[in-house]
Write a structure and sequence with these properties.
This protein is about 0% helix and about 65% strand. The protein has about 100 residues and is mostly beta strands. The protein has one domain. A six-stranded antiparallel beta sheet has the order 1-2-3-4-5-6, with no helix packed on it. The model has no long low-confidence stretch (mean pLDDT about 90).
């Protein structure tokens, strides 16, 4: 489990001070050396403005040690649309064109 809470305060001279609270909680679980699941809840609350909340669920599969395939869905509790995402992460040797 991971989590974080933060408070930001922006002090101005000509306009009122702006405060913002943000945080998240995350749970990850390895099901098998190749499979994992993760869930996350997060929020942003500026004082005096409507805030945003989001809930995410993701699944990851590692076909080998150089590749990772992630699939996730995010639900926003605001005017923003919900999101479905697929991410492919890989590792490769850098291309080097040089001669000794």
């Amino acid at each position: 489990m991971y989590g974080e809470l933060q408070k930001f305060q922006f002090a101005y001279r000509l306009i009122p001070t702006f405060n913002q609270h943000t945080g998240y909680a995350e749970v990850r679980r390895v099901l098998h050396p190749r499979w994992y699941v993760a869930a996350r809840a997060s929020y942003i609350r500026p004082v005096g403005y409507p805030g945003d909340e989001s809930y995410e669920l993701g699944v990851g599969y590692r076909p080998n040690r150089y590749q990772l395939l992630k699939v996730g869905y995010q639900v926003m509790r605001s005017h923003a649309p919900n999101t479905f995402a697929v991410q492919y992460v890989t590792n490769f040797r850098a291309i080097s064109i040089s001669r000794d």
